[in-house]
Amino acid sequence: ARAALECADREGMESLALPGMGTGVGRVPPAEAARVILDAVRCFRPRRLRKVILVGYEPEMLAAFRKAAGPGA
User: Fold this and answer.
1) Other C-beta atoms within 10 Å of 10: how many?
2) How far apart are CA 73 and CA 14, in angstroms?
3) Residues 35/68, Cβ–Cβ less than 8 Å
4) Residue whose C-alpha is closest to residue 55's, from 27, 24, 25
5) What residue ranges do the domains of the chain occupy?
6) Closest-CA residue to 18 (of 59, 65, 53)
7) Residue 5 main-chain phi, psi, to 5 deg
8) Residue 62 has pLDDT above 80, yes or no
9) pLDDT in tens, 39-50
10) What is d(CA 23, CA 29) in angstroms, rounded to the nearest whole number?
11) What radius of gyration do the chain's Cα atoms show?
């Protein structure tokens, strides 16, 4: 996730959509993937990137993103 954020920012993108990376072939549990991705987003200090959209193709990934984001997210 960090590499995707850095690349998008370096290329001057203002928004980026991130799916639950690693949860398919990599078999990373959705909760772990969501935690790692959200940690990367929260720690990232962009120059141009202003909006990150988290994409949950499966209900489990969407629920994991919501839970990891916390109340009000």
Assistant:
1) 12
2) 20
3) yes
4) 24
5) 2-69
6) 53
7) -65, -45
8) yes
9) 999 999 999 999
10) 6
11) 12
What is the signed CA dihedral for 8, 13, 15, 20, rounded to 10 degrees? Answer: -20
Is residue 14 within 8 A of residue 51, CB to CB? The reply is yes
* 26 vs 52: CA distance, rounded Å: 23
Beta bridge partners of 50: none
* pLDDT band at residue 25 under the 50/70/90 scheme: confident
Residues 1 and 37: beta-carbon distance below 8 Å: yes
Which residue shows structure tokens 């690349």? 7
Domain 2-69 falls under CATH 3.40.50.10140: no
- Can you read off the two tokens belonging to residue 47? 């120059």
Burial of 30 (0-12, 13-18, 19+ CB in 10 A): buried
